[in-house]
Inverse folding.
């Protein structure tokens, strides 16, 4: 009996390891983010602006900040209005209430929207601006422009139209 237990214990251990490995490999990987009707979106619009320049009066040196962001509430309002007219997503008042963040980056003649998880927004926009990391983390990227007459209304209309087309077709990122 003692000889049998010496043989049986390692065999049982190998069986348990084999079953555990089979269970782990049978688990499905986490599914990618999918846009669904009724989800909440938090909208943030900004422009990366020229940094303000100041002169230190004590020694006459020029002091400039490296990154300067100007939040664009008018653009946010226009994008929000188009999203609300669509009736697919609900607009959240706070980022903590949202399923994802729509980060809207405005230029002089074009606009870019990134649908982001909140953690990526916080880490790569709020804590340290890193556009490449934001684009890597995005569920989708939507670009409109450049336009010859780049009014804020035309840019926001085109951005939401492209976002809507991509979501409706089940597509993710757009590279147009």
């Amino acid at each position: 009996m003692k000889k049998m237990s010496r043989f049986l214990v390692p065999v049982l251990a190998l069986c348990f390891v084999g079953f555990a490995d089979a269970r782990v490999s049978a688990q499905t990987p986490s599914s990618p983010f999918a846009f669904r009707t009724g989800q909440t979106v938090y909208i943030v619009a900004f422009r990366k602006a020229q940094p303000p320049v100041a002169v230190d009066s004590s020694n006459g040196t020029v002091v400039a900040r490296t990154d300067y962001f100007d939040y664009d509430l008018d653009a946010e309002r226009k994008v929000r209005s188009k999203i609300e007219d669509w009736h697919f997503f609900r607009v959240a008042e706070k980022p903590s209430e949202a399923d994802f963040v729509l980060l809207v980056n405005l230029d002089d003649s074009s606009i870019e929207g990134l649908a982001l998880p909140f953690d990526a927004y916080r880490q790569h926009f709020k804590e340290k601006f890193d556009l490449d990391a934001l684009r890597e983390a995005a569920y989708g990227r939507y670009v409109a422009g450049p336009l010859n007459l780049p009014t804020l209304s035309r840019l926001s209309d085109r951005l939401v139209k492209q976002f809507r087309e991509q979501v409706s077709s089940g597509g993710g990122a757009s590279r147009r």
